[in-house]
Amino acid sequence: MTEHRPGQWPVEHPVHLSPVPAALSPAQQAPVRVEVPVPDVRLVAVVDLTDEYATHDDVSRALYEQTMRASDCHTAIVRLGEAAIRKHLTLPRALAGAFFLSAQRIEVHVPAGTRYAYFAMRVRQELEQICADHSQMLSTTRTLG
What we know:
about 140 residues, alpha/beta, 3 strands
């Protein structure tokens, strides 16, 4: 076995070949990627308080029934009728309290041509007060540990 025959190992000066990828056929080439913009999808919760209500409790009950299983949403739309506004004197505070942690925006829809245009401003004032109280509460809460 002292003789070396061609094609047998060990070769004194081996030739190292580096792998080269095979050329791809047009069917195997990667398709051109086209970017399609994804539309913005937002969850909107709608509360309808346009029925005829006899008492303050009826309005509160209707608001509670429509918001008790509500999840976080981008926008809360509250449709109000004259009966709900007239019967529930603290409705702006109730609406602000129902959505201050769960909605980024609150839209208040009142009947057109009525004197209730101030209602959205009242909801905003109550919302600012509730958020300030909540912020103060969180800043005074100390973590244990």
